[in-house]
């Protein structure tokens, strides 16, 4: 999906993963400045990072993560040709994902 | 709550759920971990009253002053071994727990994220290394809160 962007980059022996997701991350306590009505909660609850078929990171979060969340992680033992996949689910059951294969930088 | 009752309750939970189940349950999104309330209460719910030791082996990269509380960048890394999880909490946010990351053994204990901060307060990282909990904290001065809309 276009709303989830990831970038993996080899850094010495490790691999840096950066994630950017377009999401409102509303915690449900903000009010619409014009109508004064509460803006319903809408936030990502879980995010998983998989290396090939193995889950390496599971994150749980709520509305204290900023709008359009950014995350970075450092992964080990990633070989050229390996697949990194990111999946997320929000409190309304919407999902998003992105995947990238680590390519040879040279 | 009396000590013996607490011990009994904890033992009951362990007895009922087996040894593997609590670990799996820990990876699920839990309503009470993200419930509004005080920081101490959230920590109790997350770690069942276990002792948390302050540690220099956790590095926090946070601004001293955040001009915009809506986006406060944080990086938590650690030289501790066997890191199972890293939690990031904002002391005075209505919901103190921002995120908790479960990390596989071969993955570096390193996470970066962007936090919302309602007001000036401490940001706390709790790292679970083996069966021990370690923490580090730093105050961030917020000039414009990020939770009020």
UniProtKB/TrEMBL annotation, chain A:
Pfam families: SoxZ (PF08770). SUPFAM superfamilies: E set domains. Residues 9-99 form the Sulphur oxidation protein SoxZ domain. InterPro entries: Ig-like_fold, Ig_E-set, SoxZ, SoxZ_dom. Signal peptide: none annotated. This is Thiosulfate oxidation carrier complex protein SoxZ. It comes from Methylotuvimicrobium buryatense. The lineage of its organism: Bacteria, Pseudomonadati, Pseudomonadota, Gammaproteobacteria, Methylococcales. The gene is soxZ.
From TrEMBL, chain B:
PROSITE patterns: TAT. It comes from the Bacteria. InterPro entries: SoxY, SoxY_sf, Sulphur_oxidation_SoxY, TAT_signal. Residues 45-147 form the Ig-like SoxY domain. This is Thiosulfate oxidation carrier protein SoxY.
